[in-house]
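Supplementary Methods, section 5.1.

A reviewer requested that the exact input to the structure prediction be made available. We therefore reproduce it here, unchanged from the version used in the analyses.
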Amino acid sequence: MLTSALAGLSILIVGDSHLTVPYYLIDSLHSGLEEQGAEVRTFGVCGTNPSDWLKPTVGTCGAAEREPGGKVKVLPASTSTIEIDQMIARYKPNLLVVVMGDTLGAYKEPVFPKTWAWQQVTGLTQAIAKAGTACVWIGPPWGTEGQKFHKTEVRTRQVSAFLASNVAPCEYIDSTQLSKPGEWATSDGQHFTRSGYQSWGKALTQELLESPTVQKLEKK
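The structure derived from this sequence is encoded cell-by-cell as follows.
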C-alpha cells in the first residue's frame, strides 16, 4: 500500500478571502489534505495583503479558522491577522501554504502596481525564509470577467506571472493552469460557487501531492 506524500505532515494554511467562508478552500483544500493524512490548520482573514501578516491587522470583510480535525469556525469581523513568525513558532508546521493573489491584483486600478506588489510579497517571503519553513504559494485562479471586483483575464495573467517570479523561496502553484477561463462559476466574479471551490480544492490537493517541496519533505 502506497503512503501519501502528505501523510504525517503538519500543514499551516494562511491567506485571504478564499479561506473565510465555510464552503471555500477552508473546506475543500483543508479536507483534501486531511484525507491524505496531513494535520492541517487553516486561518484566513478577508481582504489581507502579504504585509498584513507581518503585524496584527484587522481584515476588511471577515475571517475564519479551522483546526486539525475540526469544523470551520467563522470569526468576528474584528479579527486580526497573526504575525507569520509567531504562527510558525506556535504551530511548527512542516509546510506553510499561502493563499494570496487576488488582493494583490488591484483589479480596479488601470495599471498593475508592480513595485507595491513586490514590496508586499518580498516582505512576507523574507519572514518565511528567516523562519526556515518550507513554503508553497498558491496564486489566483481565473474568475469571471468584470463584475463586482473588476477582475479580468489579462490582469489575472499578469499577477500570476509576477508571483511566479517573486515568491521564492516558496514554490509557486499557478492556479490558472488548473482550469480554463470561465470553467468554474463564480458568485461575484472573484469567489467561486460551491462546485468551483470543490474543483479548485481538489486540483490544489493533487498539486501539493506532486509538489517538489512536499517530495523533499517526505524524504527527510
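The longest strand covers residues 39-45. These observations are discussed further in the main text.
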